# Entry
Amino acid sequence: MKLIKFFTLSSLLVSSLVANTSIDTLVLDFEKSRFSNNERVQIKDISVNMKKNLPQKDWYGYIIDLDLKFAGKDVKAKDVVFSNGELIAPELYDIKSGNPLKDLMTPKLTKAYYDKSKLIAGNVNAKDKIVIFSDPLCPFCMDYVPDVINYVKKHKDKIALYYYHFPLLRMHPASNALTRLMILAKNRGIKDVELKVYTKDWDKYFDSNEIDENKILKAFNSEFKTSITNDELKNSKLKLEVADDIKMGEEVLVQGTPTVFINGEKDKSKLKYENLGK
# Structure
């Protein structure tokens, strides 16, 4: 009897594994078919980055890594889909709460995000860690980021705050130059660059749609009493540094600003930092 139970249980486990594997395959096949329909897209590789059991019975969330050529250019991106093996959807909502299930699909930060060079306040050895992806001309960020910095400064021994540049260039083109100027100022040894930039009144010099980098440079030099040149601002290394920050954000599905992670987990409320350091 025990032997029969053992084989029955084993069969159920195998069936479950096969079912789950087949769903993975169906999802990947669907993604390959979907992108193949675009003549400008050449698929190099499509794979599952993360799979998560959802609270809804028999449904799974997937983060898919896409390695493509689009119009002759190499593109690496991520896609989020949901499937139960019969249906697939780009988004699902909890019918009772109205919350999107995509909120459950943010990867947890790895240790790579706690790069000492990104620390802007607090103690690198602190147990509690905050990571912010932000745009210096995002209106909400301009209110929010200084509050977080000042809070961490009050609890500097117990919290580490890391900052990543994530300029939203379609919305705030002026952030392109301003972000690079922040890096240059920091490299020159100016302290609290992030706090100072976020609390300056840039509107008296330019608006967020400004694309004249000389105008932005002149404003920055005036406010910070620096003498940064146009050649320094155009240094390709600065663009690469910003691009690296953006890539780090995209790896964990950052799409808007500010995006905040508390101890590796995305904080949708953006208020959990107020419970740290106490």
Remarks:
- Residues 2-36 form the longest helix (35 residues).
- The mean pLDDT is 92.
- DSSP finds seven helices and nine strands in the chain.
